[in-house]
Amino acid sequence: MVLAFNARERTKDVDAVFHPPQLVRELAIVVKDELSLPAEWLNDAVKGFLAADLKPIVYDLPQFENLRVTAPPAEYLLAMKCMAARIASGPDSGGDVDDIRFLVRHLGLASAAEALVIVSGYYPKSRVPPRTQYLLEEIFEEFGGQL
User: How many Å separate Cα 41 from the centre of its chain?
Assistant: First the structure.
């Protein structure tokens, strides 16, 4: 959200899929110590939400000789954020609601139903939690037709 969409100023962690996992985790500890970062600064829990047919996009992201930086398409990111639908528990806790609002605007969606079509394009409807639909309905009520 920070790098690919400039959606917010900062993030509490970096969500990533990395290979080889053990080596990257070991190096992440070195970086954490050198930069005084929190222990969880590099998070690979996102792999639990990945679809097999995901085609990441490079966008205008920095690229390095030994590091390929990509991001999922906005539609896919919306689906992932909707599936998690985490509510912020404090000013620095993150949550997904602001990111969902941003992505809804970014994609120019007009209704909760339209957003749910995107979500169900990536995840079976049976896996979409009811809180996702309620959250999307609340977000579109907030917008009052004004994106």
Answer: 15
For residue 144, what are the contacts with CB-CB under 8 A and spacing of at least 6?
none
What is the DSSP secondary structure assignment for residue 67, as one 8-state letter? B
Neighbours of 73 (CB within 10 A): 16
Tokens standing for 17? 């899929």
Q: What is the pLDDT of residues 13-39, one digit of tens each?
A: 888 888 899 999 999 999 999 999 999
Which residues partner with 67 through β-bridges? Answer: 64
List, in sequence order, the alpha helices (H) in the chain.
Answer: 2-5, 21-35, 74-84, 97-107, 112-122, 130-143
Helix (H) or strand (E) holding 14: strand 14-15
Question: What is the token pair recorded at 39?
Answer: 């222990």
104 within 8 A of 79, measured Cβ to Cβ? no
Q: Are 139 and 97 in contact (CB under 8 A)?
A: yes
pLDDT tens figures, 99-130: 999 999 999 999 999 999 999 998 888 989 99
Name residue, tokens 């994106």: 147
Tokens of 60: 């205008």
Write the single-letter amino acid at 72.
Answer: P
